[in-house]
Amino acid sequence: MSRRYRIETLVTGYGLIEGPRVDAENRLYFSDVRRGGVFRRSPDGGVETVIPKRRGVGGIALHAEGGLVVAGRNICHVRDGETRVLFEAPGKPAFNDIFTDAQGDLLAGSIRFDPFSSEGSRDPGELYRIRRDGTSTLLYDNIGMSNGIGLSADGRLVFQSDTARNQILVHDMIADGPCEGRRVFARIERGSPDGLAVDEAGGVWIAAYGGGCASRHAPDGRVDHHVEVPAQLVTSLCLGGPDRRDLYIVSADNTDDPSLGGSIFRTRVDVPGLPVALARV
Description:
It is a single chain. The protein has a single domain (8-268), classed as 6 Propeller (Neuraminidase), CATH 2.120.10. It contains no helices and 24 strands. The protein has strands spanning 8-14, 17-22, 28-32, 38-41, 47-51, 60-62, 68-70, 75-79, 82-87, 94-100, 106-111, 125-130, 136-143, 146-151, 157-162, 167-172, 180-186, 192-198, 204-209, 213-217, 223-228, 234-240, 246-251, 262-268. The strands form six sheets. Strands 1-24-23-22 form a four-stranded antiparallel β-sheet, with no helix packed on it. The protein has a four-stranded antiparallel β-sheet with strand order 2-3-4-5, with no helix packed on it. The protein has a four-stranded antiparallel β-sheet with strand order 6-7-8-9, with no helix packed on it. Strand 15 (157-162) and strand 16 form a beta hairpin. 47% of the residues are buried.
């Protein structure tokens, strides 16, 4: 846990960065939740806009037919400037993090309040599965504030951050029905749990919002590594690169220079991340 990580700063100048995802060409996609837009950073450092203006994109998935699936006021597939709405839940909540299973189905976490406002009731959200045939299933509910989602290597466990209750939950995935066996996988030591990623050894990396770091939890839930970054508001992370050992950490601030705003950092870790399937919905 005392290891010193070399941190590269790749991108600065944004608001609240979220949804990092790396494609087969080692290009990094990310969103700016509050200012709007989804962007793509090339390996040479260039950044371009791939979806302009859309706000509230907390999660991004790459689609097998090209384009991106993005969260926000609904779940939609955007390709070549065309938008196809995939899912809207009852009561029309917003959606935050999303993830894909090995078959290309989507897991989508809902939020039923404005996380940036102190007014109004803070109703808990849900996790939905959106299948390739267009049907959907409520996997579970009562998530105080839905955030990072990940699956175990065999797809039998789903991990999810509940930021409001400062816990990472784990459930047993059932092939054709709701999840079972809710339990707390871990509570983080610093800040609140936000985005997450699972590695090949069953470790779960957590973005510590307000904690200034990313933390790796071993399969038994205990913390075995902290990666310190020059930001307090660490919002999400992903594992990518040719060997899936590049850890990208994104933020809503920069403590080295507050004028830099939301930033993206990169370091190297020992254990590769699990491959993330393409969406096929």
